[in-house]
């Protein structure tokens, strides 16, 4: 079976087992932890002094916390795209990417819920949501679908991990005692019998089917947080689809970035090949075009009519205060990545990685542009308020907390990759056998 | 004040009960720590909870430090049989701002916070500018109530939209949802006198304000319970505000009383942003045949004019 093109089980296992942090890994983790500590300190200040430490005021009552939340929810959708959509569509090449996508999803959705708590004026009253919660509020819908999505994603991470846990437990010598306790705790019931295998496959299949509607719900509901208000710029029937297409785009961009990084750091060139970059690149182009299409719908149609209530908002974006950011988000988030990835050479790892970064950064600013400018253009003029209420630029505490949460999400991913194989070992072996047998 | 007479009866029982509570605390001659009480022989007549008159020796009266006269659930229901409504006559407004001052004072608002905002409005380039005071519209289809996840903002049977500051989680969704931008957030710990800050929070007085929660114009239901007009109405020297009860079909600014339906019909009253479907309870009378030129209020207003409706 071991032809020249296939790898032996041993090589695969050895290649994919989690490795110790090198020097680079240490520095990277250190930086992330530093960001988290600063963020935590800023949050402590906010708890002590109230939300007045932020730059939010009565008009801009939602700021980068909420845009960060939307960003997290968006990027978390990638889990369902890569795992569920591809699996159901019987796309085989995505196997090495599934776990990367799932861990991005889990950590992003976890930090999405954290940042929402950070945004609350009274976080200690969180339990009120359960005591007095009312279903008519889109916030309750969000609470419900986010929780559901989190647990499904967690299971989708866990079930395919089970066969790998068995391998991890058996290679105790390589990995050290402390971790093997954890592996045994998580997976000692897994014997890998035929029945267990069958059940596991079934479970994963069922999860893949239910996660797709839940994924659509979570981001649609998040878009409805805005679309259910009357505000110019939010009052749109396009919002659900617009948000979902944007979410898939930023998710796919995030996977491109993560693929490149893991491949480099863990020397996984044999598993994450240029073929993967090529395919993911094509997908990003497709998704970027789709998102661009929704953007045209979102901005061109109201701009054509230029209703009075929308006017200030739209001119602010196109030519006004927010124009640099707006055009940056459109160019960096969609148009330039399309131009890079549409060419075969652009789908090589490095250019694809750069395109991925552009997509992700553009998407973060896009979320900021969706949330903030609208609030600065209320229906009635801003009268009888202090001057500081009329502008918004996040305070350092807000930046620190937002960056801290992003660093936290990356930290979760980093630690996960340190403890568990980031590419499914057992599945890779199985697929090797399949292709090898052919 | 026509609506006073009928409401007075309703208030009687509550007022008396309240009298018991506050009466003993304010002129209590005894040391509250004294537990060996000797009957003084001096009897006091009181109204019992069942409505009977009872007599109690003065010595046995205990001061009740500060009892909320209404429970939270009573506050959530509202005043029986009422449908409060406000009419704002734009032809009389001169941007004096007395309404705002009185409101801020009565509700102990912090500097920079205003529940009443007096906008300088101009609907289009060549139309006449005018002053438009805005309060919470107490919408009948209130978007703020719809979006509140914990029922901290609620609509009462008497039409008033109130906020329960003990319950609000500070998500500020209601602020994003209110198209009239009337909501105010307590970004920091409100600066309040000790006496006010330690009071029991009442949805009807909206006092004391709490950090991390929202507040807004409440139509002064505590005044209505006493049969009095909201602070802004009685403070305005030009009689811009009219307050009243739709069920009685009358509104008053303290000096003049009108039949609400006639007033709206004769002066072509309208509501703000009717197209949004929020069904406000605040009606406006158009700024025609003005009592004052627009310029006479300009010196008070430094904010820029805005062309939106
Ligand atoms: S004016 Fe705003 S705050 Fe007042 S009831 Fe209507 S939506 Fe709510
Ligand atoms: S800020 Fe308070 S009142 Fe407003 S929606 Fe949130 S919980 Fe309700």
From TrEMBL, chain B:
Keywords: 4Fe-4S, Iron, Iron-sulfur, Metal-binding. The keyword Iron-sulfur applies. The keyword Iron applies. Residues 127-158, 159-188 form the 4Fe-4S ferredoxin-type domain. GO terms for molecular function: 4 iron, 4 sulfur cluster binding; metal ion binding. Pfam families: Fer4_11. It comes from the Bacteria. PROSITE patterns: 4FE4S_FER_1, 4FE4S_FER_2, PROKAR_LIPOPROTEIN, TAT. PANTHER family: PROTEIN NRFC (PTHR43177), PROTEIN NRFC HOMOLOG (PTHR43177:SF3). This is 4Fe-4S dicluster domain-containing protein. It comes from Panacibacter ginsenosidivorans.
């Amino acid at each position: 079976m071991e032809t020249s093109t296939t790898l032996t089980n041993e090589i695969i296992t050895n290649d994919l087992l989690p490795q110790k942090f090198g020097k680079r890994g240490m520095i990277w983790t250190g930086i992330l932890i530093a960001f988290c500590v600063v963020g935590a300190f800023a949050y402590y200040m906010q708890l002590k002094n109230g939300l007045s430490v932020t730059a939010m005021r009565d008009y801009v009552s939602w700021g980068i916390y909420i845009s960060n939340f939307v960003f997290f929810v968006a990027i978390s959708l990638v889990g369902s795209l890569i795992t569920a959509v591809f699996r159901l569509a019987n796309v085989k090449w995505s196997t090495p990417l599934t776990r990367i996508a799932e861990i991005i999803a889990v950590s992003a959705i976890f930090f999405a819920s954290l940042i929402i708590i950070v945004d609350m004026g009274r976080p200690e009253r969180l339990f009120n949501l359960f005591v007095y919660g009312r279903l008519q509020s889109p916030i309750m819908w969000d609470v419900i679908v986010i929780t559901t999505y989190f647990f499904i994603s967690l299971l989708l991470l866990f079930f395919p991990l089970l066969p790998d846990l068995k391998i991890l437990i058996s290679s105790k010598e390589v990995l050290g005692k402390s971790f093997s306790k954890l592996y045994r705790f998580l997976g000692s019931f897994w014997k890998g019998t035929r029945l267990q295998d069958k059940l596991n496959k079934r479970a994963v299949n069922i999860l893949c089917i239910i996660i797709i509607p839940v994924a659509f719900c979570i981001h649609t509901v998040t878009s409805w947080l805005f679309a259910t208000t009357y505000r110019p710029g939010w009052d749109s029937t396009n919002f659900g689809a617009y948000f979902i297409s944007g979410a898939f785009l930023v998710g796919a961009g995030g996977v491109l970035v993560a693929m490149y990084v893991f491949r480099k750091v863990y020397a996984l060139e044999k598993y994450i090949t240029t073929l993967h970059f090529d395919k993911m690149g094509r997908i990003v182009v497709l998704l970027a075009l789709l998102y661009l299409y929704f953007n045209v719908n979102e901005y061109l149609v109201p701009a054509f009519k230029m209703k009075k209530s929308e006017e200030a908002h739209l001119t602010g974006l196109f030519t006004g205060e927010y124009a640099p950011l707006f055009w940056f988000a459109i160019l960096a988030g969609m148009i330039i990545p399309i131009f890079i990835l549409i060419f075969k050479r652009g789908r090589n790892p490095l250019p694809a990685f750069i395109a991925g970064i552009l997509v992700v950064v553009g998407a973060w600013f896009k979320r900021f542009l969706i949330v903030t400018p609208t609030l600065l253009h209320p229906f009635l003029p801003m009268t009888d308020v202090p001057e500081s209420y009329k502008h918004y630029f996040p305070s350092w505490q807000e930046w620190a907390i937002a960056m801290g949460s992003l660093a936290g999400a990356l930290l979760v991913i980093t630690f996960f990759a340190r403890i568990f194989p980031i590419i499914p070992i057992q599945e890779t072996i199985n697929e090797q056998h399949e292709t090898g047998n052919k | 004040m026509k609506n006073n007479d009928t409401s007075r009866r309703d208030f009687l029982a509550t007022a008396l009960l309240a009298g018991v509570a506050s009466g003993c605390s304010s002129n209590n001659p005894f040391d509250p720590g004294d537990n060996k009480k000797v009957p003084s022989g001096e009897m006091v007549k009181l109204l019992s909870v069942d409505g009977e008159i009872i007599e109690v020796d003065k010595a046995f009266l205990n001061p009740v430090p500060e009892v909320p006269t209404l429970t939270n659930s009573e506050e959530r229901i509202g005043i029986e049989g009422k449908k409060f409504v406000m009419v704002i006559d734009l032809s009389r407004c001169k941007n004096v701002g007395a309404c705002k001052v009185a409101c801020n004072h009565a509700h102990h608002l912090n500097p920079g916070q205003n529940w009443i905002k007096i906008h300088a409005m101009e609907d289009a380039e060549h139309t006449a500018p005018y002053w438009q005071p805005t309060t919470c519209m107490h919408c009948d289809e209130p978007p703020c109530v719809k979006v509140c996840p914990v029922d901290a903002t609620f609509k009462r049977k008497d039409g008033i939209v109130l906020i329960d500051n003990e319950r609000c989680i500070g998500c500020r969704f209601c602020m994003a949802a209110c198209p009239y931008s009337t909501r105010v957030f307590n970004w920091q710990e409100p600066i309040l006198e000790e006496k006010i800050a330690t009071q029991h929070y009442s949805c009807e007085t909206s006092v004391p304000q709490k950090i991390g929660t929202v507040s807004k114009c409440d139509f002064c239901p505590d005044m209505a319970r006493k049969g009095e007009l909201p602070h802004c109405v009685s403070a305005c020297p030009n009689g811009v505000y009219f307050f009243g009860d739709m069920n009685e079909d009358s509104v008053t600014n303290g000096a003049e009383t009108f039949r609400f339906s006639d007033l709206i019909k004769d002066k072509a009253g309208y509501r703000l942003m009717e197209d949004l479907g929020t069904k406000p309870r605040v009606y406006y009378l158009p700024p025609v045949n003005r009592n004052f030129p627009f310029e006479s209020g300009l010196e008070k207003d430094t904010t820029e004019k805005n062309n939106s409706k």
